[in-house]
């Protein structure tokens, strides 16, 4: 693992200084991002996979990663820099018939992979069995209720893996089609390895709830809504009390802030102090002060960084989380070529220290295939995997070659 040094408090302190100098404006919407420097010197490698790859995550097992491939869970051997697809574990047909496997998470104890499939359900897979290619690796399906939503997209577990929080992007008629966070309590695996769970309830947020992230201390869940559901183009970042979410989800919301146009993914710095969000239709990476998200929302936005077109996934890289990569999806290129036809895809590399100093922080863009969507970093911090949803590719990025 990357050593955890005490740069964090300094970082938040320095970021807080920027906001003291002048309020940071929430960015509006933007169509195509300005061109970025082309980072062709970064070492990458790619493989093609048999279906559109969505969520990707490394296992705790040595040299293994998992990727959601629509009707199967792909198992990657990552012992070499260029990964290889070694197994496909079929996902249960009734749940993957509409959109297929999407979001993915590894439980903190490394035993299970959780996969969403734009349905009511959460699919539970035994990580060791999957790594070994065992066809009985699917050990459970937690099926929720239509009321909470039937468009499960991302999932996060509590630190003790006793609860799973699923973003139900579009909610249901009962929620006024506002998205929700649906809560499941996970039971300990039975002697035969099967995992069951109970549905607890849900919390209604704004429209199109997708990205979720747990604070490292396990107390707060952050979630993004693409629009606030109150007639504005801006979306929101919501701050949610994890203890309340476990017992009384509908009362768990602490606060919301506006978070640019179409915020879709969120990550939390290891020191718990800075929350980073991709605002997709703003082509921006936003940094928020975690404590001000609760105490002083109007001053919570610390920085807004211009990245590439329609960023989705984001991930920390490098020692002390000094870099952030965003997956610039340009995902609407095929839907609206007249607007997006000239835009490129890639991974913007953002220098966190330059964000602190208030300087130009975007170091350029690493070229990718089409619609780069999600990112994962290897346990040793050396390799990042990218799912190129549009071009059916998994790309590896050599972290040591980043600028
Ligand atoms: C960046 O470089 C790559 C590799 O040389 C090239 O294929 C791509 O077209 C370049 N992109 C831009 C936007 O110049
Ligand atoms: C991964 O590939 C390496 C090199 O081919 C091989 O030695 C290793 O056994 C493979 N691991 C698994 C889990 O298949
Ligand atoms: C899962 O639950 C939903 C909502 O209750 C239900 O409509 C659906 O039939 C269930 N799926 C299966 C395969 O049992
Ligand atoms: C596994 O054990 C659980 C709990 O005892 C039981 O409900 C389930 O039917 C068993 N499954 C199989 C495949 O044996
Ligand atoms: C947060 O936003 C949601 C969705 O727009 C709204 O229902 C809720 O009242 C807001 N809560 C706060 C505390 O602002
Ligand atoms: C919409 O909701 C957001 C988040 O709760 C709030 O900041 C914003 O002021 C609201 N806009 C309107 C027009 O009510
Ligand atoms: C795309 O590039 C072409 C050629 O440079 C230009 O004519 C066209 O206006 C551009 N389209 C957009 C939407 O910027």
Question: What can you tell me about this protein's structure?
Answer:
- It is a single chain.
- This protein is mainly beta and about 400 residues long.
- It has a single domain, classed as 7 Propeller (Methylamine Dehydrogenase, Chain H), CATH 2.130.10.
- It is about 10% helix and about 45% strand.
- The protein has seven helices and 28 strands.
- The protein has a four-stranded antiparallel β-sheet, with no helix packed on it. A four-stranded antiparallel β-sheet has the order 2-3-4-5, with no helix packed on it. Strands 6-7-8-9 form a four-stranded antiparallel β-sheet.
- Strand 6 and strand 7 form a beta hairpin.
- The two termini are about 20 Å apart.
- The structure holds 2-acetamido-2-deoxy-beta-D-glucopyranose (7 copies).
- The site of one 2-acetamido-2-deoxy-beta-D-glucopyranose has 4 residues, from loops.
Helix content: 10-25%
Mean pLDDT: 94
Please state the structural category: mainly beta
State the separation between the terminal residues, measured CA to CA: 21 Å
- Count structural domains: 1
Oligomer designation: single chain
CATH level 4 superfamily: YVTN repeat-like/Quinoprotein amine dehydrogenase
Brief summary of the model shown:
This protein has helices at 7-21, 93-96, 127-131, 242-247, 292-295, 337-340, 352-357; strands at 44-48, 56-58, 64-69, 72-77, 84-90, 104-106, 112-116, 121-126, 138-143, 152-157, 163-168, 180-186, 197-204, 207-214, 220-227, 234-241, 253-261, 263-268, 274-279, 284-289, 301-306, 311-317, 323-328, 346-351, 362-367, 372-377, 383-388, 393-398. With 403 residues, it is mostly beta strands.
């Amino acid at each position: 693992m990357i050593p955890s040094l005490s740069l964090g408090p300094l970082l938040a302190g320095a970021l807080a200084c920027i906001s003291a100098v002048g309020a940071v404006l929430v960015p509006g919407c933007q169509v195509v991002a300005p061109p970025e420097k082309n980072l062709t010197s970064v070492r990458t490698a790619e493989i093609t996979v048999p279906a559109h790859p969505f969520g990707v995550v490394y296992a705790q097992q040595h040299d293994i990663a998992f990727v959601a491939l629509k009707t199967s869970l792909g198992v990657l051997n990552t012992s070499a820099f260029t990964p290889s697809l070694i197994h496909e574990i079929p996902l249960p047909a009734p749940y993957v018939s509409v959109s297929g496997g999407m979001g993915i998470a590894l439980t903190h104890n490394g035993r299970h992979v959780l996969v969403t499939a734009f349905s009511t359900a959460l699919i539970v897979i035994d990580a060791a069995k999957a790594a070994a290619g065992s066809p009985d690796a699917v050990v459970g399906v937690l099926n929720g209720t239509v009321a909470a939503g039937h468009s499960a997209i991302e999932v996060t577990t509590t630190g003790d893996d006793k609860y799973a929080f699923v973003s139900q992007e579009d909610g249901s008629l009962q929620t006024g089609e506002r998205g929700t966070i649906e809560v499941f309590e996970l039971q300990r695996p039975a002697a035969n390895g099967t995992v069951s769970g109970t549905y607890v309830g849900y919390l209604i947020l704004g429209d199109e709830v997708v990205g979720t992230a747990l604070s490292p201390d396990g107390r707060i869940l952050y979630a993004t809504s693409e629009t606030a559901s109150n007639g504005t183009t801006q979306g929101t970042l919501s701050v949610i009390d994890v203890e309340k979410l476990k017992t009384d989800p509908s009362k768990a919301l602490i606060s919301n802030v506006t978070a640019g146009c179409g915020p879709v993914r969120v990550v939390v710095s290891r020191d718990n102090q800075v929350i980073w969000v991709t605002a997709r239709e703003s082509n921006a990476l936003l940094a928020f002060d975690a404590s001000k998200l609760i105490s002083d929302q109007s001053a919570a936005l610390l920085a807004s960084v211009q990245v590439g077109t329609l960023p989705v996934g984001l991930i920390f890289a490098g020692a002390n989380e000094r870099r952030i990569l965003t997956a610039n999806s340009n995902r609407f290129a095929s839907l609206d070529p007249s607007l997006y036809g000239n835009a490129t895809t890639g991974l913007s590399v953002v220098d966190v220290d330059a964000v602190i100093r208030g300087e130009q922080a975007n170091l350029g863009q690493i070229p990718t295939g089409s619609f780069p969507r999600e990112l994962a970093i290897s346990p040793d911090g050396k390799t990042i995997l990218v799912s190129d949803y549009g071009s059916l590719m998994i790309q590896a990025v050599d972290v040591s070659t980043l600028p």
